[in-house]
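Example 3.2
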Amino acid sequence: MNVQTEKILKYLPYRLSENIGDYLTKYPGVSESVTEIRLHASAPASITVNGVNIIDICGVYRCTPDEIHSTLIKLCEDSVHTYENTIKEGYVTLDGGYRIGVCGSANTVDEKVNGIYNISSLSIRIPHIVVGCSRGLLPLILSNGKIRSALIYSPPGVGKTTLIRDLALTLSSKKSPLRVSVVDSRREICIGDAFRDCIVDVLTSYPKAKAIEIATRTMSPQLIICDEIGTYDEAAAILSAQSGGVPLIATAHADCLSALKRRPNIGLLTDNDVFDICIGLRRDAGGCGFTFDAEELK
């Protein structure tokens, strides 16, 4: 069984964990392709394999509200208050690159979320290290030996984080490695000792805008890699970094280029020629690799 998947099973309700374990033992090749495990209160649990959601995991399992609550407590290592701020933003990030989406009822004051209660769903994303998956990206971002700034987009769950993790590893560990600063605000990119043989500087848990600013000012990077940009502060920090001549590889959520450009803060970046190229990301037909749709911006 995939190590990342096996590690998370101990946090799940016992019978659900057994069912998933039995299913993955029965279909051993599936284990490497599990991307999410979802728990729903009083509704079927599911696993996602190469984009396909599977409910009948050795029998349909419906979590009770108490099981959802206790699972979240276990995932937070009995210290939910430590994750209070991110839970209000809808997620928890654990060591090893796991991100858990948290859905429930919000306690709001003046449109500000002060807390989440009656947790009804948990979406556990399983991280993967796929060595070499960025190989097809290299010809698009390298020009005369120099890195071009690129914005990589796709809907959620296609594999953007997996892709840029491997890209950072590849560019910072060859015979003439680049100094790469990785902005890992949600602790999803750097898994374990993935970068132990690389010259990567990882800025963990910083706000993205601040991390980009610090990396540019203090780490003399030859490349900055950042996941899931989109806010005005992030756009402003990126504009500042670009004025310093540091290329950026960033990702954003969008299902097509026109939708990407309609996002106001992304438009601010494309209008100011921050990126040389936009690259759409898709899973290939077999679900084991990536296909890239590139559009030159300069």
